[in-house]
């Protein structure tokens, strides 16, 4: 169970949230692999905190579907099936394309530079096949865009749907040769938002999410 937790979580507020964030990042990035068993005492020592925030964080992760309780043992990191990946993508199609359509007319042009920087990191991750870099930048990119709509619940839902997919989808996309194309769509989306083009922003986001459904299901892209 070798994964980095960054700065000492005990020195920051909300220990439960900090532990959950660190474990979630490790699971999503693949540092903690499906089937790996996590125990409260071991994690409490690793994070240098009491057992309570660790147990609460693991229960939160179980609610999100990232781990599952194992009686008298701890929590096991869950796997994500192809059927679940496809279901996640279909739910995202209901939320994300309309959200980008709503964002386009009022996109703050002063935010363009930060979004371009994130899009560049995503492109770099695809080019170097650095899936951890790609994933972290991708999650941050879409989280920031969604947050611009001022609806925290929507942002939370989109973030949760994306983290549930984890690294598995990127590995599949890299193997299929579609990762570079997916990376390029982030800059295309910024272009559409900067132009305040509602229709184009929605279309790009729909394509961005929609083509992964075919990849995960083992089908050729239809768009």
From TrEMBL:
Lineage: Bacteria, Bacillati, Actinomycetota, Actinomycetes, Micrococcales
Native source species: Gulosibacter sediminis
Record-linked Gene3D superfamilies: GntR ligand-binding domain-like (1.20.120.530), Winged helix-like DNA-binding domain superfamily/Winged helix DNA-binding domain (1.10.10.10)
Protein name, per record: GntR family transcriptional regulator
Domain (HTH gntR-type) ranges: 13-80
Key words, A-Z: DNA-binding, Transcription, Transcription regulation
Residue stretches spanning the membrane: none
Domain of life: Bacteria
UniProt cross-references to PROSITE patterns, sorted A to Z: HTH_GNTR
Signal sequence annotation: none
SMART domains named in the record: FCD, HTH_GNTR
CDD domains, A to Z: WHTH_GntR
């Amino acid at each position: 169970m070798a994964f980095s937790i960054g700065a000492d979580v005990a020195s920051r507020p909300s220990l439960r949230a900090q532990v959950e964030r660190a474990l979630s990042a490790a699971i999503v990035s693949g540092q903690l692999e499906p089937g790996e068993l996590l125990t409260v005492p071991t994690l409490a020592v690793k994070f240098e905190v009491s057992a309570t925030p660790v147990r609460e964080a693991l229960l939160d992760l179980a609610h999100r579907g990232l781990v599952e309780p194992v009686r008298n043992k701890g929590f096991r990191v869950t796997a994500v099936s192809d059927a679940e990946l496809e279901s996640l993508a279909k739910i995202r199609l209901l939320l994300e394309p309309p959200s980008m359509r709503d964002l386009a007319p009022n996109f703050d042009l002063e935010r363009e530079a930060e979004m371009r920087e994130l899009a560049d990191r995503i492109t770099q991750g695809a080019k170097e096949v650095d899936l951890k870099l790609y994933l972290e930048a991708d999650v941050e990119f879409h989280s920031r865009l969604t947050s611009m709509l001022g609806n925290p619940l929507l942002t939370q839902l989109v973030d949760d749907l994306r983290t549930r997919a984890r690294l598995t989808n990127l590995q599949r996309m890299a193997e299929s040769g579609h990762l570079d194309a997916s990376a390029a769509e982030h800059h295309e989306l910024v272009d559409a938002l900067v132009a305040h083009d509602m229709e184009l922003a929605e279309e790009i986001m729909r394509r961005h999410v929609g083509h992964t459904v075919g990849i995960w299901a083992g089908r050729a892209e239809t768009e």
